[in-house]
Amino acid sequence: MDRSPTPRPAALAPLCGREHDLIQLVALLHGGVTLLTLRWPGGIGKTALAQHLARRLTDDYDHVQFIDLSAVRAADQVANLIVAALPAADHALEPGRLMREFTAGRRTVLVLDNFEQVLPAAALLGEWLASTEHLQLVVTSRVALNLHDEHDYLVRPLSLPLGTRDVLGSAAVQLFVARVQAVLPTFTLNARTTPQVMRLCELLEGVPLALELAAVRTRSYSLGDLLVQLEHPLDLLKANFQDRPERLRSLRAAVEWSYNLLDEQERAVFECCAVFKGSFTPQALTAVWGSPEVLGQAESLLEQSFLHRLEASETLWKMLEPLRELAHEHLAHNPLTPT
Q1: Are 119 and 37 spatial neighbours (Cβ–Cβ below 8 Å)?
Q2: pLDDT at position 78, please?
Q3: What percentage of the chain has pLDDT greater than the value 70?
Q4: Is the pLDDT of residue 5 over 70?
Q5: DSSP letter string over 96-138?
Q6: Interatomic CA distance for residues 259 and 330, integer angstroms
Q7: How far is it, in rounded angstroms, from Cα 237 to Cα 209?
Q8: pLDDT digits (tens, 9 = 90+) for 90-105
Q9: Structure pTM?
Q10: Which neighbouring-strand residues pair with 135?
Q11: Are the beta carbons of 276 and 283 closer than 8 angstroms?
Q12: N or C: which end of the chain has fewer CB atoms below 10 A?
C-alpha cells in the first residue's frame, strides 16, 4: 500500500459564495469542535469546501491532511487507509496506537472526504477522538454519522438573486457566469441575459454541480433554449469532465449515487415524497402514505440529505428538484405501496 501522504491540491479553483461557510467552519474548529460533518446531497460542493478549509487551516495546526475515501467500499479498510496516509509514522503499529502516537503533542486536523459509503466506520472515528487529545476530524458525507460529539454542518445551496439589482451579489449567478465565460469568453450579463440567468439559477436551486453542468451546455444551446430543456435536468445536465469521478460528470449520476445507498424501505418513502411539488408537512406525507410509521423513514431521509427542513414556523420538508425527478421516475415504475 502507498504510504505517502495524500497531498492537497497545489491550486484550488475559486470558491464562489462560500467565504461565510469557511469563516464559520474555522471558528468551530478553533472553538474546540472535534468532529465536524459537512453534509448535504451530492453536487453541493462539499469536497471543494473541505479542500479550501484544509488550505485555510494549514498555518493554524501542526498537521492538516485531506484524505479521499471515495474509492473505499469496505468499512474495515478505513482505519488502515487513513493511517497509511500519515507521514513519518510507524505503520507497523496497530492503527489506534499509531493515531495516538502521531497526534501526541501534534495538533492534527484530518479531512475525510466521501464518508457516506463507509458509515459503519464512524464508530472508529469516535474511538480515536476519545483516546486522543490533539485530533480533530472534518468529514464530508451525505449522511450524518450520529456520533455524540458530532457537529452537523449543512452545506446549503448557493445564494439566489433577490432581484435584478441584487444579481451580482448572488453566489449562484457568480458561479454560473464564471463557468459560462470559461467556454464563451464574450458572455456578459445584460438586459436580455440577466433575467434568463436569474431564472436558470432559480430552476437549479443554486446547486453548484447543476450550475456548472448547465454552463457547459451553453456551448451548444442558447440560454432561452436551455431554460426550456431544464424541465428535465437529469437528462440534460452532463459533461465529460476528465478530472472528476464519474458520479460528478452528470446530475443523474450524482443523485443515483445517493439513491443506491438507500435500503428498500427508504427508497419506497423517497419515491412517495415525489408526489409533492414543493414543500410538504409531516401530516401530508402521513396522509399520502396511509400510516404515521412513514415518519421514521422520513427522518432517516432527512439524516441522509434526501430531504431538508425549511426554516419556517411550522415543520416543512422539501426535496431538491433533481432528487424529486429521480424519485418520480422510480415512482412511475413502482406503484406506491407502503411497507
Answers
A1: no
A2: 95
A3: 93
A4: no
A5: HHHHHHHHTT--EEEEEE--GGGGGGHHHHHHHHHH-SSEEEE
A6: 11
A7: 9
A8: 778 899 999 999 999 8
A9: 0.85
A10: 108
A11: no
A12: N
Task: Report which of 219, 213, 169 is spatially closest to residue 194, judged by C-alpha positions.
Answer: 169
DSSP letter for each residue of 312-338: SSS--EE--HHHHHHHHHHHHHS----
C-alpha cell at 127: 474511538
Nine-digit cell at 155?
A: 452545506
| Residue 334 grid cell | 413502482
DSSP 238: B
Task: Centre a 10 Å sphere on the Cβ of residue 238 and count the other Cβ atoms it contains.
Answer: 16
Torsion sign (Cα): 144, 318, 235, 48? negative
Round to whole Å and give the CA distance between 305 and 317.
11
| Range scoring the smallest mean pLDDT among 225-229, 252-256, 314-318 | 252-256
Query: Cell for 289?
Result: 402514505
Q: Name the DSSP class of 239.
A: -
Question: 247: which 3 cell numbers?
Answer: 458520479
d(CA 65, CA 103): 13
What's the rounded Cα separation, in Å, for the pair 41 and 308? 10
Cβ contacts of 228 within 8 Å, gap of 6 or more: none
Q: What's the residue count for the chain? A: 339
Q: Residue 1: pLDDT above 70?
A: no
Spatial CA neighbour of 41 closest among 154, 173, 201: 154
> Which of 175, 322, 320 lies closest to 235, judged by CA?
322
Average pLDDT for the chain: 90
Model confidence over 263-273: pLDDT tens digits? Answer: 999 999 999 99
- Describe the strand order of the beta sheet including 150-154 as a list of residue ranges: 63-68, 108-113, 135-141, 35-39, 150-154
- pLDDT grade, residue 282 (50/70/90)? very high
Could you tell me if 319 and 306 are in contact, meaning their C-beta atoms sit under 8 angstroms apart? yes
Which of 175-184, 226-235, 289-298 shows the lowest per-residue confidence on average (mean pLDDT)? 226-235
Which amino acid would we find at residue 184?
Answer: L
CA–CA dist 230, 262 (Å, integer): 26
pLDDT band at 336 (very low <50, low <70, confident <90, very high): low
Residue 86 CB partners (closer than 8 Å, separation 6+): 5, 65, 98, 99, 102
- Strand pairing category for 317-318 and 308-309: antiparallel
